[in-house]
């Protein structure tokens, strides 16, 4: 820890040292995780950044400050910023129907009963809007929820196209044939909606989503290690991916030297497909803190950041009032 940085951030070295103690005792020593990189940024200073554990157990490689991680749902804010850049340029209004750009969604209906592929459905109360997909009030879901007959249909229909080299266009075609959990705007449910936002960026901008992000966000912000894939010359910095098995031990599920991320990626998942480093993601966060500007480069306006950070649930309610209830698959 840099003493000058600590002084500028107004933080205490001894107190920050508790981070290592806590993470080592609660997670590293019991073998719950392989490694991680905590970073604390305050008042324009990196006050704490300390690699811990291993990024690759099999090869005995320690975590580094420039380790490349799968950032999964931390991709979502990046995708939302990309879409809102187009909002600033007048490409859409939040109340515009999604099917204006994604005609595959023109005949969406709402689940009433049944199991895949035989459903009884009702008409939507209204069309799905761009605001609905930005706020997870679209009626879409995720296949991994394992809670309803609709998410079961996602699994059976193969909506997770990243596993088999699909595309955002193919995802839209599949979703257009499946029922919604609820009529858009009437409830909240975590979902593939942010992947739909990525497709909206493609169709509004005329650019492939990964190319749009590189030109309008990653390049201008100096996010040099953020992308949907890892180039060969960076694979030595790419972390292995583990999950805890039934025996509570870590199991390797994606070897960095034989990972799909090391090849060509065709499904550019705005909801969870990006890789990045701690320092790259900090640059993105600093842009948000700076009202859309970083190091003299503006990528969006402060009023748009303000709009994005407001509560958009109906009546400014708490999420618990609108989150979707679940039922068991039959």
How is this structure best summarized?
With 330 residues, the chain is an alpha+beta fold. The chain contains 10 helices and 13 strands. Strands 1-4-5 form a 3-stranded antiparallel beta sheet, covered by helices on one side. Strands 2-3 form a two-stranded antiparallel ribbon.
Distance between the termini: 55 Å
User: How would you characterize the largest beta sheet?
Assistant: 3 strands, antiparallel
Principal-axis shape equals globular
Run of helices and strands: HHEEEEEEHEEHHHHHEEEHEEH
Q: Mean of residue pLDDT?
A: 94
How large a portion of the residues is in β-strands, by DSSP E?
5-15%
Strand order of the largest sheet: 1-4-5
Structural class: alpha+beta
- Rounded to an integer in angstroms, the radius of gyration calculated over CA atoms is 21 Å
User: Which ranges are low-confidence, i.e. pLDDT below 50, for 5 or more consecutive residues?
Assistant: 326-330
The number of helical segments is 10
Write down how many β-strands occur, each being a DSSP E stretch of 2 or more residues.
Answer: 13
What is the percent of helical residues?
A: 25-40%
Describe the structure.
- The structure is a single chain.
- With 330 residues, the chain is of the alpha+beta class.
- Helices cover 32% and strands 15% of the residues.
- The strands form six sheets. The chain has a three-stranded antiparallel beta sheet with strand order 1-4-5, with helices on one face. It has a two-stranded antiparallel ribbon with strand order 2-3.
- A hairpin with a 4-residue loop joins strand 4 and strand 5 (61-62).
- The longest helix is centred in the N-terminal third of the chain and has 16 residues, at 13-28.
């Amino acid at each position: 820890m840099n003493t000058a940085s600590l002084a500028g951030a107004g933080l205490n070295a001894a107190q920050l040292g508790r981070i290592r103690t806590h993470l080592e005792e609660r997670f590293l020593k019991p073998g719950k995780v392989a490694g991680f990189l905590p970073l604390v940024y305050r008042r324009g200073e990196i006050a704490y950044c300390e690699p811990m554990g291993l990024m690759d157990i099999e090869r005995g490689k320690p975590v580094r400050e420039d380790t490349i991680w799968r950032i999964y749902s931390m991709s979502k804010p990046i995708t939302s910023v990309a879409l809102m850049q187009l909002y600033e340029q007048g490409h859409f209004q939040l109340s515009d129907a999604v099917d204006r750009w994604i005609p595959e969604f023109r005949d969406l209906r709402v689940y009433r009963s049944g199991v895949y592929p035989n459903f009884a459905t009702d008409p939507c109360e209204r069309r799905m809007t761009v605001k609905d997909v930005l706020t997870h009030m679209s009626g879409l879901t995720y296949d991994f929820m394992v809670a309803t007959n609709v998410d079961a249909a996602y699994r059976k229909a193969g909506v997770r196209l990243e596993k088999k080299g699909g595309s955002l266009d193919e995802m839209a075609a599949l979703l257009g044939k499946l029922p919604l959990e609820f009529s858009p705007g009437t409830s909240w449910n975590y979902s593939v909606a942010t992947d739909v936002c990525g497709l909206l960026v493609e169709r509004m901008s005329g650019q492939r989503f990964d190319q749009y992000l590189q030109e309008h966000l990653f390049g201008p912000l100096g996010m040099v290690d953020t992308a949907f894939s890892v180039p060969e010359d960076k694979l030595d910095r790419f972390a292995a991916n583990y999950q805890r098995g039934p025996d509570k031990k870590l199991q390797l599920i994606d070897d960095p030297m034989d990972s799909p991320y090391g090849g060509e990626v065709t499904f550019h998942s705005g909801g969870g497909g990006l890789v990045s480093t701690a320092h790259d993601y900090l640059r993105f966060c600093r842009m948000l803190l700076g009202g859309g500007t970083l190091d003299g480069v503006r990528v969006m306006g402060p009023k748009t950041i303000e709009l994005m950070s407001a509560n958009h649930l109906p009546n400014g309610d708490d999420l618990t009032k609108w989150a979707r209830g679940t039922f068991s698959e039959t």
